[in-house]
Amino acid sequence: MANGHRSQIKRERNAVKDTRPSAKLSYARVSVQKACFVLDAIRGKSLDEALAIVMYNPRYASSIIEKLLKSAAANAENNNGMDPSKLYVEECYANKGPTMKRVHPRAQGRAYRIEKRMSHITVVLNER
Fold first, then answer.
1. Nearest to 59 by CA among 44, 37, 92
2. Whose CA is closest to 54, among 13, 122, 45?
3. d(CA 67, CA 81)
4. What's the angle, vertex CA 20, arms to CA 14 and CA 26, rounded to 5?
5. Cα separation, 45 vs 40, whole angstroms
6. Which of 80, 93, 94, 95 is nearest to 126 (CA)?
7. Per-domain residue ranges for the chain?
8. Could you tell me where the Basic and acidic residues compositional bias lies?
9. What pTM, to 2 d.p., does this model score?
10. Nearest in space to 120 (alpha carbons), one of 59, 61, 55, 60
11. Closest Cα partner for 53 from 83, 27, 92, 80?
12. Integer distance in angstroms from the first to the last C-alpha of the chain?
């Protein structure tokens, strides 16, 4: 058990809280592997460059990540008072979410399983 009063513990926990602007999408209906193709392309890029990359990327995940980038940029501007022209993608990752299991009927009464995978996508921005 931690020593100290509950309010003191909360104060200490909030002191080390990450204040970088971010956006997170949970339960995105795209697999982690497919989302990572787009995320790898924008990692470390400036915000304008990252938005240009996802805008012209034909993958389905890029439309989801474009919304996330715009949301994180709005969070940076409105909540943190950061300049949008100085922002860059510091972190972006996709974690595994739950899997929906579906059945695909096959010949002679068999059934194959289809796994519809989900992911939790996070984008973290910062100022240069």
1. 37
2. 45
3. 20
4. 90
5. 10
6. 80
7. 21-127
8. 9-20
9. 0.83
10. 61
11. 92
12. 40
Query: How many angstroms from the chain centroid is the CA of residue 128?
Result: 20
Tokens encoding 84: 């949008």
Length of the chain, in residues: 128
Partners of residue 39 on adjacent β-strands: none
What residue type is assigned to position 8 of the chain?
Q
Per CATH, which fold does 21-127 belong to? Ribosomal Protein L22; Chain A (3.90.470)
Residues 6+ apart with CB under 8 A from 81: none
Residue indicated by tokens 């931690």: 2
Q: What angle do CA 20, 23, 28 make, to 5 degrees?
A: 150
Q: Are 89 and 122 in contact (CB under 8 A)?
A: no
